[in-house]
Amino acid sequence: MLEKAPEPRLPNPTTPKGRATVARILEAGREVFGESGYVSMRMSDLAEKAGLSMGALYRYFDNKDDVFLAIIHDIHNELYAASRPSGPPGFRSAPLESILEANRGYLSHYCKHRKVMRAFIEATMVDQRYTDMWWFMRESHILRVASALRRDHGIAEIAAVPARTVLEALASMTEQSAYVWYAHPGAGATLLPVEDATRIVSDIWYLALFRDQPGMTLPDRSQASDHGQSVPGRDKLA
Questions:
Q1: CB pairs under 8 A, 24+ apart, for 207-212?
Q2: Residue 32 to residue 50: CA distance in whole angstroms
Q3: Given this structure, which CATH class describes domain 13-62?
Q4: Alpha-carbon distance 106 to 82, whole Å?
Q5: Which region among 46-60, 78-92, 190-204 has the lowest average model confidence (pLDDT)?
Q6: In which residue ranges of the chain is CATH 1.10.10.60 found?
Q7: Are the C-beta atoms of residues 155 and 93 closer than 8 Å to each other?
Q8: CA–CA distance, 77 with 92 (Å, rounded to integer)
Q9: Which residues of the chain are in CATH 1.10.357.10 domains?
Q10: What percentage of residues in the chain have a pLDDT greater than 70?
Q11: CB within 8 A of 230, min separation 6: which ones?
Q12: What Å distances lie between residue 142 and 19, 100, 137, CA to CA?
């Protein structure tokens, strides 16, 4: 396992104007990479979007990978923070609510930045640095939940399978579902509501982790989602 994510080479401007320019470049970069994809993105497009000359852009970033690594590094930190339950009642006393909150945060942020995430997946196919970044992101989420599961519920195995292995499957399911529902080019203009997506994946997480634990049951959500739309297969989860 990687102990840390590949570090982006960030400029270190000493003036407020310089720091504001870097922030503007990175914000514009999210748009340009989202629109063009990783492979097709050009620094000239970024300069135009950021309202800078090419010379000014290269004063801060040497190439598009320096920009994109910085963007993905930021998005990873944002996803990690968004998928952390904010406070009481907590994973120990209310695990389903905590799972819902964590998945809602992750899926909401993923959906918001779905075009950049699509470019990121594209980048993992052609550059090992992005593969390493993706692996680190995945591992950091798994380790956090594995630690909480052992600490708060004393669970190290589930049906004689190491809890970490089960969590790897659940994390892969959530990540791939987010990609299919929001980032895949075939997702279309009508996206699955985040709350529906949250309920679907969270029910699966909860059943996988706690179905055999005394007193752990799912509420009946078999008729409809919170948005009043039928969710195929939901009745099979409850």
A1: 207/237, 208/158, 208/166, 208/169, 208/170, 209/95, 209/149, 209/155, 209/158, 209/163, 209/166, 209/170, 210/95, 210/96, 210/153, 212/158, 212/159
A2: 10
A3: mainly alpha
A4: 6
A5: 78-92
A6: 13-62
A7: no
A8: 24
A9: 68-210
A10: 87
A11: 223, 224
A12: 34, 16, 9
- The band of 156, judged by pLDDT with boundaries at 50, 70 and 90, is very high
Indicate if the pLDDT at residue 232 is higher than 50. no
CATH of 68-210, one of 3.40.50.11090, 3.40.50.150, 1.20.1250.20, 1.10.357.10: 1.10.357.10
The mean pLDDT value of the chain amounts to 88
Give the distance from CA 182 to its chain's centroid.
11
Is residue 105 within 8 Å of residue 198, measured between CB atoms?
no
- Reported for 77-81, long-range contacts at CB under 8 A and 24+ positions apart, including other chains, are 78/109, 78/113, 79/106, 79/109, 79/110, 79/137, 80/137, 80/140, 80/141, 81/105
pLDDT at 221 over 90: no
pLDDT tens-place string over residues 104-142: 999 999 999 999 999 999 999 999 999 999 999 999 999
**Location of structure tokens 């944002």:** 78
In this prediction the pTM is 0.85
More confident call, 172 vs 231: 172
